[in-house]
Structures are given as structure tokens and as C-alpha cells.
Amino acid sequence: MNKRLILASASPRRRELLSQIGYEFEVRTSDAEEITTEKEPAFVVEELSKIKARAVWETLTEEGKQEALEALRNSATEEEKQESLVIGADTVVSVKAEEKAIILGKPKDEEEAGKMLRMLSGRTHQVYTGVTLFSMEEGKEKTESFHEGTDVEFCELTDEEIWDYIRTKDPMDKAGSYGIQGAFAKHIKGINGDYFNVVGLPVSHLYHALESK
Question: By C-alpha distance, which of 120, 128, 178, 175 is closest to 149?
Fold first, then answer.
């Protein structure tokens, strides 16, 4: 992998995971509106990851320089774009209710966090992370998107356990209102699939995608 990596995500977990597997990178984020018409969780995360990656990718052009200075206070030349690869990622939790998949993102407040955790209590749900890579190959823009899904089973949660956890503030920036890697680990009965995907980045899949560049 000989390109400059740019992670289009403010997530500290994604930064830690990308560093953990040995990559050096810079972080850039954007205020792009994340709207999707997709309904299936796997396609939702792929499209949202693409929106994030594209927003940062577009700042690596001369045409986008002024917007980059205003929105990100950073910009790059066209030559730098040739040498760069942007990684976008998005994670959601999906749980079935009445034969329909309900997609859970980050809670907007503590009440919503409690509602999500009660919904997941004692059940198995799916965590999907979508990843999009933007790069230039042979002078042409190339986009690659993929996703991973992991099954996660919760123990039964009491209201006291739910609110004890919410008071830590840990759920507030996480899809589904929990972090598998922190204090909430004691409530995880089991998983089937990629653990790191639940944290926020399917590192094995990403590594092999990057090394093929």
C-alpha cells in the first residue's frame, strides 16, 4: 500500500483500529448531509460510507479547494489526489421486529438510548459496517464499497443495568447505544462474525482491500 491514507471519520474507535493494524493516516471529516433512500441495513451503511468518503475526496481537487478551506480548513492539489486514498465508514445496528428490520443509529438523547437497549435486551441483532474506498488508478477515479455483518447476542438487561450504563455517557456516540469494547462487554452473551466490525471497522476485510491497491 503506497498511497497516502485519509480516514473520513471522526470516530476514535476507527482511528485506533486503523493504527492497530499498522497504517499511518490523516483524519478529515465533512459536514455532508447523510441521507439514504436504502432500506436494507447492508446497503444503508455502504451508501452512507460512500457519502462520507466522497465528501472528503471532493476536497482533494482544485475545484473544491475553496470549499475545503471554508469547511475543513484543509485542501490538496490534484497531484496529491493522485497519491491519496480516502476511507469512509458507517456502522448501524439492525434488529428484527414484527418481521421488519429496524435500523438503529446513534441515540439523540438518553431516553432514546434506553429505548434502544430495552429493544436489544435478551435478543440477537446484527451490526453492519459499510466501507468505501476512493482512489485514482491509471488516471481514473475508482470507488470500492463493501460491508460486513456480525451477529451480537445480549443478555437480559434490567432497567437498573440499562440506566447505570447510560449514566456513563458511553452509549451516546455509538450505533445501537452500546460499545462492545468497553464496560458494556459484561452484557454481551456472544457474537458470530467479526468482532472488530462491531467496534466500527472490519479490519481484516479492509486490510486485504487496501493491500490489493
Answer: 128
Question: Catalytic amino acids?
Answer: 90
Average pLDDT of adjacent 10-residue blocks, the chain of 213 residues = 90 96 93 86 96 92 49 54 91 88 94 97 97 90 96 98 97 96 96 97 97 86
Contact call for residues 206 and 146 (beta carbons, < 8 A): no
Q: Find how far residue 200's CA is from the centre of its chain.
A: 5
The letter for the amino acid at 174 is K
Specify the DSSP element, H or E, that contains 87: strand 84-97
* Whole-angstrom distance, CA of residue 158 vs CA of residue 24: 42
Comparing C-alpha atoms, which of 65, 81, 61 is closest to residue 73? 65
Spatial CB neighbours of 5, under 8 Å, sequence gap ≥ 6:
18, 23, 24, 25, 26, 84, 85, 87, 210
Q: Which residues contact 184 (CB under 8 A, 6 or more apart)?
A: 165, 170, 171, 178
Please, which residues have CB within 8 angstroms of residue 164's CB and are 6 or more apart in sequence? none
The C-alpha atoms of residue 175 and residue 90 are separated, in whole angstroms, by: 9
Say whether pTM exceeds 0.70.
yes
